Amino acid sequence: MSRRRHSDENDGGQAHKRRRTSEPIEIEDRLESLICRVGEKSTSSLESNLEGLAGVLEADLPNYKNKILRILCAVARLLPEKLTVYTTLVGLLNARNYNFGGEFVEAMIRQLKETLKNNLYNEAVYLVRFLSDLVNCHVIAAPSMVAMFENFVSVTQEEDVPQVRSDWFVYVVLSCLPWVGKELYEKKDVEMDRLLSQIEGYLKRRVKTHVQMLQVWTAEKPHPQEEYLDCLWAQIQKLKKDRWQERHILRPYIAFDSVLCEALQHNLPPFTPPGHMPDAQYPMPRVVFRMFDYTDAPEGPVMPGSHSVERFVIEENLHCIIKTHWKERKTCAAQLLSYPGKNKIPLNYHIVEVIFGELFQLPTPPHIDVLYTTLLIELCKLQPGSLPQVLAQATEMLYMRLDTMNTTCIDRLINWFSHHLSNFQFRWSWDDWADCLTVDLEKPKPKFVKEVLEKSMRLSYHQRIVDIVPPTFSVLIPAEPIFIYKYLDETASTLPGYQLSITLGNAIKNRATNEEILTILKEVPNPNQEDDDDEGESFNPLKIDVFLQTLLHLAAKSFSHSFSALAKFHEILKTLADSDEGKLHTLKVIYEVWRNHPQMIAVLVDKMIRTQIVDCAAVANWLFSQDMAHEFTRLYIWEILHSTIRKMNKHVQKIQKELEEAKDKLEKQQLKRRDSGDDEDMDKNSEDEDGQLEEQIERLQEKVESAQSEQKNLFLVIFQRFIMLLTEHLVRCETGSVDISTPWYKNCVDRLQQIFLMHHVTIQQYMGTLENLLFTAELDHHILAVYQQFCALQL
Q1: Which residues pair with 687 in a beta bridge?
Q2: Where are the beta strands (DSSP E) in 49-132?
Q3: Quick one: DSSP state of residue 611?
Q4: Which residues contact 147 (CB under 8 A, 6 or more apart)?
Q5: Domain ranges within the chain, ordered by starting residue
Q6: pLDDT tens, position by position, 529-563
Q7: DSSP string covering 311-375
Q8: Sorted alphabetically, which Gene3D superfamilies does this protein's record hold (predicted)?
Q9: What is the Cα–Cα distance from 438 to 455, expressed in whole angstroms?
Q10: What is the pTM of this model?
Q11: Domain formed by 644-671+691-792, architecture
Q12: Where are the beta strands (DSSP E) in 401-492?
């Protein structure tokens, strides 16, 4: 009885307590929801919603001030597309509670310092832009904002700092001016003129060697591919000429002008940009992607010109929406289509241009490639009457401009288009592209169509591709992906190894052991040996041929069968492919049997690297070998090479991480012992533990050095092969007085750039070695130019 009463009381007490503690949490969640959702679709006007929310927050300030500060700082950083909505809200709160306004400005400055310290430069841009728009809301005094901008621009005078550092600080200032330029010019015109002339001086002396490497197209027509700072500078110059009048930014604070202009303003505390640190990772320069102009959107509102600031604002906001919602494609598509002011602009054209701009961004897109496919599919579903037409027009334009398009961007276009087609029954007006059949099949257009059909086949099956494409395109249709077994029937009976292949096939079917199979393989004569000497273990290509052809033939039914076969006979394969020649010949056999099935080649090579039957350097040597020269410009070859490099990089990172963890563990143990002052027995145990850890660290250190040496060797092999191929081509052209710019040459140079761009972080560790051994001053200037462009990216 008493126990039950005790538990009842306890339950009641707990419930009461839980209710009491959960109430503030509920209120905090409600505040967060209210703040995050303001500015979304609503039956009331934005102004009345903001006024209501300001009233709610003001009432909650005494109890939840810190929480409100935290939420507002977070939305300033993470929801930049609603920038002016939140600056207005802060303005209204500042008008009602001056102290809160001051605390918010201080919190923002603290957050700005933190983001810069943590290399979060994109978020820092949004924070500075937010602060600058607070000038419009009478929260921050204009002179102190100008002073902050002056400090930012002073970075351009620093010596021995990378250009990308100065670029970022100049970009921040310029990118704020569409929002706050008018207000600052009205209050501080002399200072602003001085600031802009300093920026102009800096832009004139900037080095722009890197631009060519980042351009999507080499041609300047129909749209110039401008460097991002040059383009933004031209837009700001035009804005200044138009007396800072821009017609696209939503400015809810104008409605509250009578309230806001009465508010007291805060001065920003003096802000000195943090000094340059060697480990700082500044954003890379970009090229502004341009695909449409006002002539491409014939009906409805006119598209702003490429140098109008409206174009910058629209694109910036669309990029922000994608950045905020990229993990939820449906929400992202809906947000893009409900963009404020959509009736004043050809929104579908802007959206398609921005999405392709991100997909083609070099060195890498901001998000995973598949996002852009799924996002465009979602947009087509939401706007079936208009968006598919714009997308078809864009695809047609991209096809027409393939001749001057960067090969890396063509790869991404192939992957996007084939994936997109697979979601729409592969329907396309192929006859419109019949012009690709009348030119050399090595040129970009026929190559593009061939690769798209090859990728589409991976997403369906061979006969489906044959059925959807007009018969005239038969030359571009991929071969049927069947296994080519050279010992298939009796016509091959004259081939060396034919009889053994039958014996071996039967042994594998009868589940023979590894020893039994090795005994059969001993019978295989070595074509490399003249007479019967005792060097039985030397490289025997026929052994690899017979065993691998027979094994893969029996396992050709599926990927899984092939993987099981490699796993089951892993030891034999490792023994056969022990030498460098053995590894190369193993890869050669895989290509011979599966040459009509590039996807199978890619997955088998991947599996063999993982299981250490072949190594990364062997794969690189094989891809650049004479045997593969006719496949050199095929997309799958480069997918295999990049996958191989990524594996090598991950392997190095994994061992480095293990080494760091072991060092941390040792350090913690020693600190713990020092703090606790243990007795002698404990000391002895600890010393033993330390000894074991030190041995482990030593072993890991050796593994790291060995892996890094392997990694460096891989890049040396790749770049050396590129240099050899390009040098041979240049000499051949010079001797025969032929133009060097063949489709093969453009492809090869683009692929060299692609290696630099896609693996730039790793390659930078080995710049000294590359410069001393390969990219020397004596190298032909055509090849050296690529290396110099790469170096300029991080100047």
Answers
A1: none
A2: none
A3: T
A4: 268, 270
A5: 27-261, 326-476, 644-671+691-792
A6: 654 444 445 788 999 999 999 999 999 999 999 99
A7: HHHHHHHHHHHHHHHTT-HHHHHHHHHT-TTGGGTTHHHHHHHHHHHHHT-SS--SS-HHHHHHH
A8: 1.25.40.180
A9: 23
A10: 0.91
A11: Alpha Horseshoe (1.25)
A12: none
